Amino acid sequence: MAAGECNWLSRRSFSSVLCWLLLQMHIGGSWAFNLDLSNAVTHQGQAGSMFGFTVLQYSDRGRLSLLVGAPEAQTNQENVVRGGAVFKCSITQAGVCEEVVFDAKGHNAAFNTMTNQLEPYDDKSNQWFGATMTSSVAEDGIVAVCAPRYVYFSPNFQKREPTGTCYVATKSLQSFAEYSPCRSSAGSSGYHQQGSCQGGFSASISRDGSRFFMGAPGTWYWQGQVHSQSLSETADLLNTVEGPPSHDDSYLGYSTAVGEFTGDRQDDIAVGMPRGYNLTGAVILFDGQLRNLLNLSGEEMGSYFGYAVSVGDINGDKLDDLVVGAPLFTNFSSNDNSIERGRVYVFYQKSSHQFSRADVMTGEFNRGRLGMSVAAVGDLNLDGYGDIAAGAPYGGEEGSGMVYIFMGGRGGVITKAAQAIAARQLGPALSTFGWSLSGGIDMDGNQYPDVVVGAYKSDQAVVLRSRPVVVVTALLDMPTTVNLEQQGNCILKNGTRVNCFVLNTFVQYTGINVPDNLAIEVETILDSGSAAPRAFFQKQEGVSRMNVTYELGKNQQRNNSQYIYIPNSFRDKLNPIKMEARYRILDETVLSRPRREAITPILDQLNSTMVSKSIRIGNKCGPDNVCYPALRLSAGESTGMKEYVLGRSEPLTIEVQVSNEGEDSFETMFYLHLPLGVDYVKMQQTGGTQNVAVTCTHRGGSRQPTTASLQGSENVVMCDIGNPFSTGQKARFTLFLAPIVSQLSLDNTLNFTATVNSSNPERLPSRNRQVLFRLPLFAEAQLSLTGASIPPAVRYCIDCKTPSKFADESQVGPEVKHVFQIYNKGPSTMETGQVRIIWPSYTRDRMPLLYLLEEPYVEGNARCQKVPVNLADVVIQRNSTMEQQKSRVIATGSTMTVQPLAGPTSSSTGQAVGAGSARRQRQASALTMADFIDDVFDQPAIDRPKRAELLTNSDTARIDWLDPQKACGASDCTIITCDIGRLMEREHVVITLRSRLWEDSLRKLQFGDLSISSRAIVQVQTLTQGIRPRSHQYASEVVSLLMVMTSR
Q1: What is the pLDDT of residue 826?
Q2: Boundaries of each Integrin alpha third immunoglobulin-like domain copy (predicted)?
Q3: SS3 letters for 433-463?
Q4: Sorting pLDDT into bands at 50, 70 and 90, what band is 892?
């Protein structure tokens, strides 16, 4: 929702005469799949009412309808101007809609003691009621509708604030309850609190209908907020809390979607924050208690990542995946000067409840803004995987809008759209088609989910129903070879003897809710792709194409047999003759349909709608008609690749050469048996004899399901060479492979077995046709260690009097924080590591220097061992401890970017040098570490290291590791040991130590200006899956504090 328009089988036979080709097809073009456009139902709303701004499929105990929001509709509410409305519309009859009255009253009024009159205390005019709609998954009729621009007055009637409000309807849209959590504090809140929260800008209801989630992006200087309201207990209201000033203008709550992200079977919530994370945008995941779980950030500043979110199981693993829209994404590297094409991201939830890589779909039109609406619309084609709809309301050739359908699959979403629907296909008047979307419910009873699309600028909403998908099983049966040297077995009309064979075509169909009878037309093409055909039908001499119509009953198989002849004289006797059969449903000959089904079925266009098979021509086999090839094989890893490092982005490549020094070889096959966990990517021919074609397929591996025919753990690449592979020919090609770390059976070596054979008897021994080779397997993680002192310099008073007893920690001296970040540059995952921090606690005479106040604060997968802190039992200032500030960080969701914690900046005598000033209505005590880093490093966080030193073979770092006290120098140091857990590539751990500079020691020592340093050393211990590094890897960093002497 936005605040306006400016803000989308072949069974291989080695010796048999017959070869069966089995093709399973979910049976026109890839841009017109199973949403039916010809029977679309379009509803037209009041002109200028923004009818279609939101759409919602509504199911109330099996009674199905469509709810449409019109946020500028004029209603019968007294004195309310264009307050907005919701309409309930038919799913089958265009224009049949009626208003659902959630609130019949005009402005609410109360007695004003200042004027002694009854006056309105709110304003419902232009409140945009219907701009947000949501419902629970359960078919119990729970619907929430919001008015984010609703205005509430202060108690003295002088202040007016857009707090927003929502209504929740139950009991079949007959019972209504209002929720406006920001309104309770209106009158004294203001935009710096909750006065401008615009509650209901987004909304979601838990799947069981128990809780109502409301986004309020205008709270706290537009940081944004999320509220969670129990629908059974009014007092049960939860909400997120205010974050640091760096989170201002982030718009948390811009979008919301309910999902399950922890494995506890309790509903969680995904919340869009499109201006967060330095304007790159983010989606923040909370559990049901609004505790931060995980954050996902965008990739481009200003893309509005998180503008729209949706949740669904896209890859069929029973885990909720996340769909995120970034409608202002622009590819600045493109050369077409286009902007705001938009992008949609799909993040996949893993069994660990983390989220893996994102698949992306980028818009195709300049300013089309793909991703302004996204919806997980259920399984549109009933293939077992959830599908996605994404809107580009300004896309299309005329800019009137596009909706794209992306199909899910076992490996994730198919990023090429299965269907692209332009507004012009449905009517010339449609505009902003794709602004809103709703799906996931079968609205016409054919078992396939349907989709509803809103187009608010033209005041329209469109119901698109899904067509049943026909699954065709097709078989081709014919000989694998034909020997032209044998006497022909057929006679043509002119008396010529030619070679003939029988081509059998078998067809049957099935599918969910498909008609009991269908007419399927099969077009058979002989020697397809050839300009001069070499095969013809005997019944129609000289004809190489024929259409046959099969009138079939569901699950009934039909067969057609044709005699095919090959003429005696033609030029090309080397290349195989390809027979092809193409299929289509004849819509006009559908014999019967289910009673409620008014739309025709369709073949699944995600897969091929044709089947083919080739017959090879036998030749050069001598008088005995038996060829004896002499195949030789060489295979191994590509030049220069002597090992493979886990996690590297470059593919693993295998170079293969096959040669034939004997007679023609038929059905020549190359096999490369892969280790488990290694997948096949592609094949590329790199040389060899011209016209020797190589085609490769993969059987087994992680990307294909295991079946009985795969014989358990089989993982093999199979390449068909030549057909025939003639005397003296060579084939050179490279195989590209991709190891999957989590699935590898690690023994530090990848073992490969390569073989080549044919259906012919061989003259050379088998050792010439088999190669065994291995590739060492290693892991490597490069660590970057960076640090900063906050502040980098302090002043201390050399002649000030030290109190006899410290009232609190501020009298000890200036506060000093040292922050260390350990970052894994990859490519491999580090499983375990350790950090040792050498901290200058005392002088050699045990005079305190940097006095540790509390245990180290750790962000990330690490834990520090306890060390002695605050031994003098100094009183710790309230709200200054790291633990108290920790809850603030969690509540605002800053785990993806290091957001340093707040703390005091000065003492009674000591003062930080170069500290930033507070802004707006903030007090100086609320300054964060980020404020200091802005001054010192001119950047808002320490994600980008200012310098890094990788000391893999450094004797200095290793000596410091083994004898840290010696590395301490003239100080008496505290050694702090922190154990790091799993750290994947591009992940980091941050360790913060808070202390006070003990000024009294400096006065006694009578030092001038000086600096004091802490040192951190990190060691990689074990890498991914327990592999130890090839050599000890260390990284170190020194953080220094400059102390400037002053006097009274």
Answers
A1: 84
A2: 783-1042
A3: ECCEEEEEECCCCCCCCEEEEEEHHHCEEEE
A4: very low
Backbone phi, then psi, for 220, in 5-degree steps?
A: 50, 70
The answer to whether residue 905 scores a pLDDT higher than 50 is: no
pLDDT of residue 884: 56
Q: Does 283 score more than 90 pLDDT?
A: yes
Percentages helix, strand, coil for the chain, rounded to the nearest 5? 10, 45, 50
Report the alpha-carbon distance of residue 605 to residue 867 in Å, rounded.
65
**How many CA atoms does the CB half-sphere of 926 hold within 13 Å?**
12
Query: Is residue 245 reached through a cis peptide bond, with omega within 30 degrees of 0 on the bond before it?
Result: no
Please tell me the distance from the alpha carbon of residue 985 to that of residue 649, in angstroms, as a whole number.
12
Which H or E element spans position 170?
strand 165-170
Q: pLDDT tens digit string along 90-110?
A: 999 999 999 999 999 999 888
SS3 (DSSP) at 735:
strand
Radius of gyration, alpha carbons of the chain: 36
Which is nearest to 283 in space by CA: 263, 318, 308?
Answer: 308
Q: How far apart are CA 392 and CA 390, in angstroms?
A: 7
Alpha-carbon distance of 132 to 308, in angstroms, equals 12
Domains of the chain: 69-242 (2.130.10.130), 254-466 (2.130.10.130), 470-617 (2.60.40.1460), 631-701+715-778 (2.60.40.1510), 783-870+945-1046 (2.60.40.1530)
Handedness of CA 926, 929, 935, 941 (dihedral sign): negative
Q: Which stretches within 159-214 are classed as H helix?
A: none
Phi-psi category of residue 130: left, alpha or beta, with phi > 0 → left and psi -120 to 50 → alpha:
left
pLDDT band at 878 (very low <50, low <70, confident <90, very high): low
Whole-number percent of the chain with pLDDT over 90: 51
Is the pLDDT reported for residue 1038 higher than 80? Answer: yes
Output the six-digit token pair for 192.
Answer: 């710096």
The pLDDT value given to residue 111: 83
Residue 908: exposed, middle, or buried by beta-carbon count in 10 A (0-12, 13-18, 19+)? middle
Evaluate if residue 836 carries a pLDDT over 70.
yes
- How buried is residue 148: exposed, middle or buried, by Cβ count under 10 Å (0-12/13-18/19+)? buried
Residues 6+ apart with CB under 8 A from 129: 71, 83, 84, 85, 86, 102, 103, 145, 146, 147, 150
Distance CA 910, CA 894 (A): 31
